[in-house]
């Protein structure tokens, strides 16, 4: 049986990360090199950009298309491809495992990888030599439901499946700017609260982050980009090591913090 794999939370930030690696790209590349020392049967990505009404869905095709689900960016972004090969048999295995946990999960043979999935993967595993499947977040989902969802995924870590949850530590697009000397005032108080809460593996506080975290509404006007972090945290045990990869602030309002839960 493969060793228990870590679970990763990645802030994918702006689609421009694909061509502007900044601090994030090298950190993810180094992380990917360390992760490849493990026996990884497949990668399962949960992206903030795939929400499915009423039930979870999981990609089940042999070849996953690269979805350019954004507009108004330079042409070079739309030329990028991540040649991931799918994992239909492992998708069925994941479906069965999650159904045993009481989740409603359907196979999806049409869906590819959105930018929340393929952009981090191009840095983590640039050779695209590990099979990939993507799992949607069933919608509607609040913080409490995200934690329950994450807890149901725990057993996959013992099956050689590397779980990557891709979202954003902060995600207020109204505050995006281009002066690297400016940082939105709410970012530090918010991410410091998150860091403290993660360190104490406080799922109860996380479930109530809208009420408890300072400036939660400014940091996340909507929930979907924060929920992958809650899923990743809930998928870990409270005695596992936690590693933070801090890649700074981009575009004034995007905190590029990443977390690894478990040994790697």
UniProtKB/TrEMBL annotation:
Q: Which cofactor does it need?
A: Zn(2+)
InterPro entries for the chain: Extradiol_dOase_DODA, Xdiol_dOase_suB
Pfam families named in the record: LigB
Establish whether keyword Zinc is in the entry.
yes
Q: Which domain of life is it from?
A: Bacteria
Q: Which family does it belong to?
A: Belongs to the DODA-type extradiol aromatic ring-opening dioxygenase family.
Q: What is the species of this protein? A: Orbus hercynius
Keyword Aminoacyl-tRNA synthetase among UniProt keywords: no
Query: Where does the signal peptide begin and end?
Result: none
Protein name per its UniProtKB record? 4,5-DOPA dioxygenase extradiol
**PANTHER family this protein is in?**
4,5-DOPA DIOXYGENASE EXTRADIOL-LIKE PROTEIN (PTHR30096:SF0)
